Amino acid sequence: MSPVAAGPKPFLLLSIRAEERAALDEHAAFVRFLGVGADEVRRVQLGLAPLPPLDLDEWAGIILGGGAFNASDPEESKSEAQLRAERDLGRLLDEVIARDFPFLGACYGIGTIGRHQGAVVDRSYPEPVGPVSVELTDEGAADPLFAGLPRAFTAYGGHKEAISRLPDHAVALATSAAAPVQAFRVGRHVYATQFHPELDLDGILTRIAVYAHHGYFDPSEQEALGAAAAAVTVTHPMTILRNFTSRYRQAGAIQS
């Protein structure tokens, strides 16, 4: 799969969402908060089709979003679509890590990169769908992707699995009381967050509605979860996406 237009290199969004409403909303949110045009974020739906051949040199960076897959699910319980997506992502990450290519994984992405790098990904630290309190580590506060964020901020999240232990070569960038690893980095340009940097209030309400019957919460809690989400103001996580654009968009140049 290759870009077709001249100019700044586009970003590639890898989506595992088979639910059309959520998939479209995810793409729109990344476009908005990356601060680029819709045609500058190309989407591949790994939940529906194999990953086509990629030439990393033709992309500014890659983003892997969240969805209903869990990296820690027993292999025998995974669907053929999930197994195919994991094989494709494993091969891609082999090259991404080897080249230290700009990559940002959110939610499912943190488990995928984590497992690839030897982290322990399990069900020890689930978080309910809604607001999440995040605190940057010293390394996170100094990292260019988190520039402009306060030391502590609120994000939206919700997950069944999380990283309970990072490998020694990974750099912990953010944490929380509920989940010890909220963000980490491998090398200088491969990042992952447990929370969703693309989610504002409208986005989390869409996710609550779409995934009400996917085991994240009891469907009877939908209204209460929406109210809890509306009770906070979430504006800081999107800075990560703006920084991702400013750092990597121009000709796909990797900046220190």
Automatic annotation (TrEMBL):
GO CC annotations on file: cytosol
CDD domains given for it?
A: GATase1_1 (cd01741)
Q: Which UniProt keywords apply?
A: Glutamine amidotransferase, Transferase
Q: What GO MF terms are annotated? A: transferase activity
Pfam families named among the record's database cross-references: GATase
Is-annotated flag, keyword Transferase? yes
The keyword Transferase appears for this protein: yes
Looking at the record's lineage, which domain of life comes first? Bacteria
> Which PANTHER family does the entry link to?
GLUTAMINE AMIDOTRANSFERASE YLR126C-RELATED
| Name recorded for this polypeptide | Glutamine amidotransferase
